[in-house]
UniProtKB/TrEMBL annotation:
Organism of this sequence: Actinidia chinensis var. chinensis (Chinese soft-hair kiwi)
Family matches, as InterPro entries: ATP12_ATP_synth-F1-assembly, ATP12_ATP_synth-F1-assembly_N, ATP12_ortho_dom_sf
Chain segments carrying region Disordered: 34-71
Protein name in the entry: ATP synthase mitochondrial F1 complex assembly factor 2 like
Subcellular location as annotated: Mitochondrion
Biased composition (Basic and acidic residues): 59-68
Amino acid sequence: MATAVIRKTLKSISPSVAIRTLSNRQFGAIATATAGEPESDGPLSSFTFSSDGVDQEVQNEKTKDDSIYLKAPKTPSFPTSASSSSSVTMPMSFMTGSIVGKRFYKQVTTREAEDGNGWSVMLDYRTLKTPSKNPLKCPTLALAKAIAAEWEYQQTDGIRPFTMPLMKLACTALERVPLTRPKIIQHLMKKFPQDLVFCRAPADNDLTRGVLERQVEKIDPLLKWVESEFGFKPVVHSSFFGGKQEDGLVTAIESLLKKTDDCELAAIDALTAAAHSLIISIGIFRGRLQIEEAIELIRLEEDLQVDRWGLVEGGHDVDIADLRVQIATAAVFLALSRRP
């Protein structure tokens, strides 16, 4: 009975309506790929990212053939002339497993930017662009090659944005950080009193038995490094709401953040979001911590609970893998973006 009703409902739905409905949905940022021949008065056609859903909807109304089709149209409707080149609108979700659009390029290369300031990534004759439709200019050739490798890795059946974390960080550093630098630093400093390494487990609780001893063993050396590096001893506490740190330490940390360049601040912000610790981020930034050491500190308490109660498959193992990707990506981006 239920099956018959579902089949009857699906048959009554017009395929064109379903496709139009799916193509109009917005899931996060938007990527626009310009296909066709390069314009005569511009440098190159380009693959761009845009978060302006309104503009994309207006553009889609003007050019009906610009949508991604779930199935190829029966008759070719895309213009072929260079003057009427089409664009493909794709939902760009970096944090999901969705596949957006088919791979539209054959070769990925790098070249020096036209103004000589940085390096560009080329998809055939197209220049990779930022969300604001400016050429993506990497500060170093190493970073450009790494981003090019992410694009080269994409399969022919579709582009997987979640496999391009370096591309995401590069766009953040070039687009978001210059416009919101004071707010980023303000947010980081607001969370600083609640830093993970400042919080200690109570010694008289059976559920956290052994945690305090492990924190003293693993985290105290990092806190001693902070004291030697900035001249102020961090204050530890047992409250989730944090505790007040010395004004001198707060000022020193804030001064360090203000002296960073855009790529460095983007990496520190990403590291802090993943680690829940600005101190661990600065430890990686200053070379005090390696990736595995940072992950061990971040997961210190949870790993003790796993040792005691066991690992939940599909839960703990996925969290560990996700953390490794986030920390490693930001650390690698930080290293690759630094000029020799």
